[in-house]
Write a structure and sequence with these properties.
Radius of gyration: 25 Å
Structural class: mainly alpha
Strand content: under 5%
Distance between the termini: 27 Å
Helix content: over 70%
Shape: globular
Number of helices: 15
Largest sheet: none
Number of strands: 0
Number of domains: 3
Order of helices and strands: HHHHHHHHHHHHHHH
C-alpha cells in the first residue's frame, strides 16, 4: 500500500467512526517513522555511491602508490576518511537536509576506516596479527553507533564484532599445540555465547534512549544462537582419525562471550513481565552454549547428534516464545533457521546419491514442499500471535475489551 492509498484508507476509517483524528495522526506518524521504500532505496544507493567514491580514490592512490611520498599517502587517506564523515554529518545532523544519504555516507566512512588501518600499517610496515586490526576497527566505531543512534551503523559494527570474534577463535584453534580435528565446536560455543550477549544487550538497550536498537539486537542474537548448533550438525566422522577430547582452551572465546552475556543480563530487570521473553531467550542461548561445549568435550565423535537435536529444540522454543510474546520477527528467524537445517541435511545425506535430472527434479519438489509448508505454517503462527490477548501471554495494551465473538468466530 502506497502513501496515497494509506491516507485514503485511514480517512475512510475515520469517517466510519472506527478511528478518531488522533489515532489517524498516530498511525501516520508511526508509518513515517518506520520508513518507506523510497527512503530505503535512497539509503542503499547512497551507501553504494559513497563506497564507490572511496574505492575509486583508493584505487587511484594504489595506482600511484610508488610515486607518492609518505606524507601524501597519509594526507589522502585522512582526506577520504574524514571527508566521508564530514559529508555524512553535514547531511544527516547539521542541516538535516538528507538524513538517509548522510547516514549512508557515515556507513561508507566506517567501512573505509578498515582500509585506512591496513594502508597505514603498510606505509609504516606495522606487523601484527590480523584479528587485532579488525578489533581496532570494531572498537573505535562503537562510540559512533551510540552517538548517531543509527541502526545501519549498528549492523556494520555487529558484523565487525562477530568477524573479529570468529577470526580470533580461528587463531586460538591454530595455536593449539596438539592437532585437533573438531574445530567446529569452538565456533559453535562462540556463536551461542555471542547470541546470548546480543540478546542481553538488546534487553539493556530497551531500557535506554537506544530502545530502537532492541529489535535489531534481538534478531541478530537469535540468528547467532541458532547458527551455533547448525555449524556443529554435520557428520564428519569419516574424516576423523582416533577420537580425541576437545581441548578446553579452544572453548575459551565462547566462555568469555558467555560471561559477558551474564554480566550484561545482570544489569537488566529481566523479571519484569515485558522482559520475561528476553530472559528465557538469554537463558536458552547460554544453556545451548554449555550443552554444545559439553557434547564436544565428552562425545567428540558423535557431537553432531545432540547438535541437531538441540537446534530443533531451539527452533521450537523460539517459535513458541514468538507466538506467546507476539514477536513475529522471532518466528521469521526460527523459520529461516529451520529451512537452513533442512537444506544442510538434504545436501549432506542425499545430494551425492542422486544423479542428473533426478537431482534437479527432487530438489525442485523439495523446495516447493518446503515453501508451501513454511508459508502455511508461518501464516497460522502469525495469525495466532496477532489474535492473542493479554490472557494469552501478550502485553496488556490498555485498550477497551472488544465485543464478544459471534457464533461463527473462533475465540483467540
Amino acid at each position: 500500500m502506497n502513501k496515497r492509498q494509506l491516507h485514503e484508507a485511514l480517512a475512510a476509517l475515520e469517517r466510519e467512526g472506527t478511528i478518531d483524528a488522533g489515532q489517524r495522526s498516530a498511525i501516520l506518524a508511526r508509518v513515517e517513522a518506520s520508513g518507506d521504500a523510497a527512503g530505503r532505496f535512497a539509503t542503499i544507493v547512497g551507501a553504494l555511491g559513497g563506497l564507490l567514491v572511496g574505492a575509486g580514490v583508493l584505487s587511484l592512490v594504489a595506482y600511484n602508490w610508488e610515486q607518492l611520498g609518505r606524507p601524501a599517502k597519509l594526507l589522502l587517506i585522512l582526506a577520504i576518511f574524514l571527508g566521508l564523515h564530514l559529508a555524512g554529518y553535514r547531511l544527516a545532523e547539521s542541516p538535516g537536509r538528507a538524513p538517509r544519504t548522510g547516514r549512508a555516507l557515515t556507513v561508507a566512512a566506517v567501512l573505509a576506516f578498515g582500509g585506512a588501518i591496513f594502508l597505514v600499517a603498510q606505509i609504516y610496515h606495522l606487523d601484527a596479527k590480523y584479528p587485532n586490526a579488525v578489533l581496532l576497527w570494531w572498537l573505535l566505531n562503537v562510540p559512533l553507533v551510540l552517538l548517531t543512534s543509527s541502526t545501519a551503523l549498528l549492523h556494520v559494527v555487529m558484523a565487525l564484532g562477530v568477524l573479529w570474534a570468529c577470526w580470533h577463535t580461528g587463531v586460538v584453534v591454530d595455536d593449539v599445540p596438539q592437532s585437533w580435528e573438531h574445530w567446529t565446536a569452538a565456533f559453535g560455543v562462540l556463536l551461542a555465547g555471542l547470541g546470548a550477549l546480543l540478546l542481553a544487550l538488546g534487553a539493556l538497550a530497551g531500557r535506554s534512549r537506544w530502545a530502537h536498537f532492541e529489535r535489531h539486537l534481538e534478531h541478530a542474537g537469535l540468528l547467532l544462537a541458532l547458527a551455533a548448533p547448525l555449524i556443529m550438525s554435520f557428520d564428519e566422522r569419516s574424516s576423523y582419525g582416533e577420537p580425541e577430547p576437545t581441548p578446553l582452551v579452544v572453548l575459551l572465546p565462547g566462555a568469555c562471550a558467555l560471561v559477558a552475556a551474564m554480566l550484561v543480563a545482570a544489569r537488566v530487570r529481566l523479571l519484569e513481565p515485558r522482559r520475561r521473553g528476553a530472559l528465557l531467550a538469554i537463558a536458552g542461548a547460554c544453556g545451548l552454549a554449555l550443552l554444545l561445549g559439553l557434547a564436544a568435550w565428552r562425545l567428540p565423535e558423535m557431537a553432531f547428534v545432540p547438535a541437531n537435536l538441540l537446534m530443533l529444540a531451539a527452533i521450537v522454543g523460539v517459535i513458541a516464545l514468538g507466538v506467546r510474546r507476539h514477536r513475529n520477527g522471532w518466528i521469521n528467524v526460527a523459520v529461516l533457521a529451520f529451512v537452513a537445517l533442512l537444506f544442510c541435511r538434504y545436501g549432506e545425506y542425499l545430494w551425492d546419491r542422486l544423479e542428473g535430472g533426478a537431482a534437479f527434479l527432487l530438489t525442485g519438489l523439495l523446495l516447493l514442499g518446503i515453501g508451501f509448508a513454511t508459508e502455511r505454517g508461518r501464516k497460522r503462527l502469525i495469525a495466532r500471535a496477532r489474535a492473542g490477548g493479554p490472557g494469552q501471554g501478550g502485553p496488556a495494551t490498555g485498550a477497551a475489551p472488544s465485543a464478544a465473538p459471534s457464533a461463527g468466530e473462533a475465540r483467540p
